[in-house]
Amino acid sequence: MKIKKLIITTLLLVVTIVPLFAQQNGNLQLTLKEAKEYAIKNSPLIKNANIDLASAKQKIWETTSIGLPQVNGKLAGSYQLTVPENIKSFSSLSNLGSWMYVADQSLFDLTGNGSNFGHIAKPTPTEPASDADLKWGLTFDVTVSQLIFSGAYIVGLQTSKTFKQLSEVSITKSEYDLIESVTNAYFLCVIAQENKQVLDSIYKSTEKILYEIQETQKVGFLEETDVDQMQLTLTNIQNTRDMINRQCEVALNLLKYQMGMDLTKQIELKDKTSDLISQLNPDVVSTKKLIVENQIDYRLLSVQEQMAKLNVKLQKSTFLPDVAAYYNHQENFNKKSFSFTPPDVLGLSVNVPIFGSGQKIAKVKQANLSLLKIQNGKEQLSMGLQVQYSDSHSAFMTAMSKFQTNKTARDLSSRIYDKAIIRYKEGMISSLELSQAQNQYLQAQSNYFNTIIEMSTAYSKLEKLIK
Q: Measured in whole angstroms, how far is the alpha carbon of residue 118 from the centre of its chain?
């Protein structure tokens, strides 16, 4: 029992530590599906598209808040270096109540109790305002406003929601484009790596043959020309290997760039060409047809058309009046100062456009022309998508047919090359004939890989069209 527990504990540690060790060393193994998922999460292109969507949501609230109550406060202070005489005169009117009371009492005494005088109440004595009191002022204003009606506000609210929809469609389009790019880059990387493996194998076998014929030539059984021919063949293979190595590095960096990954990070591609080819299902592209209205570019243009229509409505709304209500309260902290401003004001404002010399009409016509251009573009895009679907479908079917032919040719040339090596070792063919068989095999291998790329590119375009 103790041994079993020890084995289980050891296995758990291995399962836990190995992934952590691989992660610490920066190694990451990815299938094509995992590469797509990584790109969707980490690509700056998708991140920026999501930021645009978040900005569009905030724009909706910004536009909505325009039609909600607005409250503003203002604190204002002032100090007059010299008090004008007219302000002093107005300030002296504060003693008018006392004068009127004295006059009223005097007239009452003269006319008697039955007269109309003697009814003014005695005012509370007030100190006269000094120049120092009149020089300073401190007020606080609170204004509450509410938009009652505005055509531009209503259309603006609709436009902000449509802009959010545009951002959502843009995210979907960015994801489709990114998946297509990552798929093509992944295919390119895998093919470059497998092509490198083929060249490495040929290089080793050719290097071995060169060594054998060099030893044979030393004892005089072969001419020096055969050695030179094989040396030239080996050199050409080495040059091709160097070129493929550089292509592998470029392809991997391109894939990392598309995925939003650090270029210094080491990755390993788990899928092989056979795995990738099995994912190119011809039944999918044959059974699913193009629906133009569902195609992402057409949907994007449809939303732009909707925004253009709203722009026409916006320009037309400028002919309508704007109605708003407001309330203002002012608190004067210097009670001895003189002010004509009432403490509380309630008002209603109506802004009516009367005459604009045709400017608004010109803007409406421009908006209609912009809308017409987008509608013409939609019609052209519809026809272009159908042509693109037909071309991509034809390219995919052609590439599939070529793939089968080139696969057969590659297998045949591989067998021919293997037999040529045996016959060369037996002295039945020359080194030149061996080089020809080798070049034939390399060309067939290249045609085979190129056809896979053609198939993948056409399939990716078809897949994006019929989504």
A: 84
Residues 6 and 50 in one domain: no
Structure confidence at residue 5 (pLDDT): 41
User: What distance in Å separates the CA atoms of residue 167 and residue 50, rounded to the nearest whole number?
Assistant: 8
- Calculate the CA 123 to chain-centre distance: 74
User: Which residues partner with 346 through β-bridges?
Assistant: 327
Our CA dihedral for 169, 175, 181, 183, rounded to 10 degrees, sits at -130
Helix residue ranges per DSSP H, 268-358: 273-278, 282-287, 296-317
- The number of residues in the chain equals 467
With b for 16 or more beta-carbon neighbours within 10 A and e for fewer, the 365-380 pattern comes to eebbeebeebeeeeee
For residue 287, what pLDDT is reported? Answer: 79
How far are the Cα atoms of 202, 215, 220, 325, 430 from residue 209, in angstroms, in the given order? 10, 10, 16, 97, 12
Task: Give CA angle at 326 (320, 332), nearest 5°.
Answer: 150
The pLDDT assigned to 15 comes to 37
For residue 129, give the amino acid letter: A
Bridge partner list, 67: none
CA distances 386 to 79, 298, 392, Å, are 77, 12, 10
Q: Would you call 74 helix, strand, or coil by DSSP?
A: strand
Shared domain for 434 and 297, answered yes or no, is: yes
Domain count, the chain: 2
For residue 154, tell me if it sits in a domain: yes
Q: Residues 6 or more apart from 24 whose CB is under 8 A from it?
A: none
Domain harbouring 176, CATH code? 1.20.1600.10
Residue 159 sits in the same domain as residue 13: no
Q: What is the mean pLDDT of each run of 10 residues along the chain (467 residues)?
A: 38 37 61 94 92 90 89 87 64 53 63 63 60 77 92 90 92 94 94 91 88 76 76 89 90 93 92 91 81 93 94 92 93 74 88 88 94 95 94 91 94 93 85 88 93 93 89
pLDDT of 24 = 43
pLDDT at 121: 66
Tokens of 426: 């037996």
**Measured distance CA(42)–CA(36) in Å, rounded:** 10
**Is residue 167 in some structural domain?**
yes
Q: Tell me which DSSP letter residue 261 carries.
A: -
Identify whether 103 is part of a domain: no
Q: Are residues 167 and 211 in the same domain?
A: yes
Q: Is residue 282 part of a domain?
A: yes
